[in-house]
Amino acid sequence: MSRWSEFLSPYAYRLQYQPGKHMGHADALNRCPLPLMLSAPAPSVASGVFLIDNLELPLSASDIATSTASDPLLSHVLDAVCRGWMVDSRSPEFLPFLRRCTELSVLQGCLLWGSRVVVPPTLRQLVLRRLHEDHLGIVRMKALGRGYVWWPSMDADIAGWVQRCPPCQAVWPAPPSSPPRERETPSSPWSRLHADFFSPIDGRSFLLVVDALSKWVEVIHLRSVTSAATIHALECLFSTHSLPDTLVTDNGPQFTSVEFRLYLASLGIRHALVAPYHPTSNGMVERAVRSAKESLARLSPLPWPARLCTYLRAQHSTPYATTGKTPAEVLMGRRLRTTLDRLHPHFSPLSTSLESAPRAFRVGEEVYAQNYSGEPKSLEGLQAFSSLEELILDNNLLQSDLHLPSLPHLHTLMLNKNQITELEGLLDHLAEVAPSLEFLSLLGNSACPNELVCKDKDEGDYQRYR
């Protein structure tokens, strides 16, 4: 207290006692437990009498007979069975028994329908409780009750009893939902796409995209399930198959981010989101994910890249029951070639190459010749020649005095003995040669024939050939 008095000396205060039971933080002595533990009180005689009074004993035939005799309707039916049925007894309550008049009997004061006991109204609740003590369903409870008891509205009473049972309703399965509204079939392939993620396969995540019309499936491996990775995967996909009109996804954070929405808006793609916590709204991609997982699980001995390629190759080349065609036929307009195609005898792996049409020029058409001597690379043709003017052969030198406007310089070609013999035989059968000098390629000349022009020399030193 002296310490607190020194601390509070600048203030005017008053000390007041507060009981420990009113203090939020009691001292240590008040928090100590009591040394003496009180024992539980002994059960009183009244509680034992109450338990005995509320003990439910099983029903017996005497209880049924007593309640039947005291019930006005059943006592009347019991008398009719024993004395004979009267024609005037046709009240609505009496009709169910009248229809079964030939099957009713009496045994030890109990009314029986066949081998089943007719339960009076006062005991029906107790019988229902006995039938439902194991919390059976409606169908099984009816099957159990029909083997022992009967009363006119027994089926309806059993159904109402089960529907009012709290434990049964707590674990009751959800009622069957109505079939989801089917989306309209797109008019063209790759118009509406459905996308979703699935994982894991060897600890990896994948993006699955399926076309609504062709059922073409694309599965893309993602290193990270983010909006940026999803955009990159779709960008690669759109560069191959073009842009869709609509993309249907769930409400995952990758699809609802601002980055993803801005990306689709920049491409003019409509983004459709399904109902939250309702996967059947996007049932097409959910079914495709299930098929992909099952197929990849069956191919488990292979590494995951080989499994993925095998699944996609089979999916693209297998006909669908809804379309009657393969996804490749609907999307691309052609069947994909598989190993089964090689079984057909008409299969030919060699494709006929399309030869380019020969180049032709019209008289007077403006042409350009390639200039190999410098710039510019092409020069406009100034004069057309109908044939090669002359070739001059001197020993091993082949020269020409043909002058082309685009090639003003003259060149000399060295020929060996074999080439000279071939040239002599060729010139004997040559009537007219085009200015391109294409026949010089037969002599093993690697230079461009259009470059072969010769310097002017004395005509007396050479033997001319025409």
Automatic annotation (TrEMBL):
List the transmembrane segments.
none
Q: Which Gene3D superfamilies match?
A: 1.10.340.70, Ribonuclease H-like superfamily/Ribonuclease H, Ribonuclease Inhibitor
Look up the domain of life of the source: Eukaryota
Gene Ontology terms for molecular function: nucleic acid binding
Ranges for domain Integrase catalytic:
185-335
* Family matches, as Pfam families: Integrase_H2C2, rve
**SUPFAM superfamilies of this UniProt entry?**
L domain-like, Ribonuclease H-like
Q: Entry's InterPro entries?
A: Integrase_cat-core, Integrase_H2C2, Leu-rich_rpt, LRR_dom_sf, Retrovirus_Pol_polyprotein, RNaseH-like_sf, RNaseH_sf
The biological process GO terms on file are: DNA integration
Stated name of the protein: Gypsy retrotransposon integrase-like protein 1
What is the species listed in this Swiss-Prot or TrEMBL entry?
Thamnophis sirtalis
Q: Which lineage is the organism of this entry classified under, starting from the top rank?
A: Eukaryota, Metazoa, Chordata, Craniata, Vertebrata
